Structure formats: structure tokens, C-alpha cells
Input
Amino acid sequence: MIREIAPNVFLETELHGANVAFIVTGEGVILIDTPMLPNQARQWLSEIQQRTDEPILYIINTDHHRAHVIGNQFFPMATVIAHEHAWKEMKSYGDSFRTRLINMYRDRIPEAVAEWRKHLEIIKPEITFTGRTILYKGDKEIHLIPVGGHTPATTVVYLPNEKLLFTGDVVITDRPPFLSQGNTKEWLKALSYLRRLNYQLLIPGHGEPTGKEATENMSRYLRLVRRQVRRAYQEGMTKAETARSLSHLIRYWPIPPEEKPKADRRFKSGLGRVWNEVRAEETAKARAKAKAKKG
Ligand SMILES: [Zn+2]
Output
């Protein structure tokens, strides 16, 4: 169901994939991410066109993951804007990306797969940024703030006048966060930055709109994971052992039924990523200590 969460800002949280939104600025429409499934993307386009005659100008992709970007192809009139790193990732989406997507959905959503087999074009960003960027369009002021953490490309979209914050996958509330391309230290920094912004509604990458407290919950969780992974590392566990022994931490989150088959595997790979990060931190610490001793 589409909700108008502020004047001329529309949100949909119930489609397959990530949350999507559009902003009618008075001089054109700006999309935040695009519906992943072809029929839902087409439906989204018609919902937009039922509400406004303004042209669709831009798509902001909050990161480069498939749930946020593969629907771009259904909005050929729009220019995609995203972080430079998202462009780099999307530029390499070729046959293996396509095969993985098709294999993942072949049994679950065959009609989407049939369409992707015929046509799957990754529409890359034409405008990229690496620092805070503001779009002034019509009566709207839209701040794109790269915060990283979830991926190096991850960008939040902040509307200071409407007091809205679209966090992308820095905050998600209805499933385990995807850690496999993340950096948890940076992620925690991003979350504490988000607590300093002024907004009334926080729209996560996945899940229902909420408030600032969702950033606290994410931080608590990431700190828990880091603490436990560090303990495992210090006890001498390998990456695989750590991932196995901490796989129960996934239960902190609900898991949507469609995510179930791959959730555990994904989660373990995420724990492996955190293990690598912790190892790098511990190695650097040990090195600094040895250096101090010597000096
Ligand atoms: Zn993501």
C-alpha cells in the first residue's frame, strides 16, 4: 500500500525487495530505489503516473544491491544517481550476476525469471558522487549523504524540511542485516552520525518506517556481533568455526519466509566478514604494541 509520509513524498514497503519511494518536487519526480520484480516495477510506474504529470527525472540508488537497482530498467526516462562505488560495482554486473539472480528466483518467482531471461539491463548511475550532495528541485531539498558501513556505496537520503530519513540498508528492521560487504566499525560510526540528524520518521532499507530508536537497535546488534566474533577470534577459532559457533545470532532478527532458504548461509558469510575485520584490527593493535615496546 502506498503511503504519503510527507506532502508529496510517497512510500511503499510491501513490495518484494527493498523499500521504494518517490518524491514529487513540483518540477519533476525523484525516485528512491526501484522495485525489484518486473511486474511490481511496472505497477510502481503507473502509480506514479496516476498521481502526477511531472516527468520522472532521477533515481537515487542507496546502494548497488540487486533489490535496490535491477528495477531501474523500467524507468528509462530517469537518470540514475548513486555513489561512485555503486557505479564501479554495477559496471561489473554481467553474466554471473544474471545467472545468480536467475538461479535464486527460478523456483520462487518463475514469471520474473522469464522476463529477466528476455531482458535484464543494469542501468548504471550516470551521475555519481563521493561526498555529501544536495539536490534542489522544485520545493524539495534532498540530501544524499554517503555513510558507508553496509557497503562502501551506501548513502542515506535526508529531507531536512520534511524531517525524513531514508537510511538504505544501514538500518533494516524486518530481517538480519547483510554484513557480507560491510565494515562494522564504519557502520557503527554511520549509525551514531544518523542519531545527530534531525528527523521524525526513519525509513529503513527493509521494514516499516520507525524512529531514531531503530539506529540504537542496529548499533546494539553490531556491537554484540563484534564482541562475540572478537572473543571467538581471541580463543583461536578460525573463520569457519566462528561462523558456525555464532550462527544462532541470526535469531536476533525476524526472517521473512522468502529469505529463509538463504538466510543462514548469508549470515555465516557475514560473520566471516566480521571475523576478517576483527583480525585486521587485532593484528594492527598487536603491531602497534610491539612497536611501542621496541621504541
Ligand atoms: Zn544493500
